[in-house]
């Protein structure tokens, strides 16, 4: 699993590849915007607190804040909504997203 760790104050980010499922277990079955202690990833992350801000499921469908099911749902998107880029003026599209 890849974790993208960002510091918004400095704009710095780092991508960390983790293969050990025991270290990643605290991230499983968490909702978006929930916080996880960094101690579970190892000594170098001791004292950090991570906030889950997004992700994808195994098939690549993005997570969307506000969908309160753990399944995939099809939503009608319009201009200004996350996970959607308007191609033509006034166009709406039904897309699959993952609940958080």
What do these coordinates show?
This protein has 100 residues and is mostly beta strands. It has 1 helix and 6 strands. The strands form 3 sheets. A two-stranded antiparallel sheet has the order 1-2. A two-stranded antiparallel ribbon has the order 3-4. Strand 1 and strand 2 (12-17) form a beta hairpin. It is elongated and about 50 Å long. The protein starts with a strand and ends with a strand. The mean pLDDT is 90.
Give the helix level as a range of percent: under 10%
Please count the beta strands (DSSP E, at least 2 residues each).
Answer: 6
N-to-C order of helices and strands:
EEHEEEE
- Biggest sheet, strands in spatial order? 1-2
For the record, give the distance between the C-alpha atoms at the N and C termini, rounded to a whole number: 17 Å
The number of helical runs is: 1
- The portion of residues forming beta strands comes to 25-35%
Main β-sheet description:
2 strands, antiparallel
Overall pLDDT metric: 90
| Broad structural category | mainly beta
Gross morphology is: elongated
What's the alpha carbon Rg, rounded to whole Å? 16 Å
Low-confidence stretches: none
């Amino acid at each position: 699993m890849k974790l993208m760790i960002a510091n918004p104050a400095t704009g710095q980010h780092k991508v960390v590849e983790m293969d050990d499922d025991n270290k990643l277990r605290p991230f499983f079955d968490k909702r978006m915007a929930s916080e996880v202690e960094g101690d579970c990833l190892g000594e170098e992350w001791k004292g950090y607190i991570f906030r889950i801000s997004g992700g994808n499921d195994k098939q690549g469908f993005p997570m969307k804040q506000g969908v309160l099911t753990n399944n995939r749902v099809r939503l009608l998107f319009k201009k200004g909504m996350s996970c959607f880029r308007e191609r033509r003026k006034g166009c709406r599209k039904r897309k699959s997203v993952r609940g958080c």
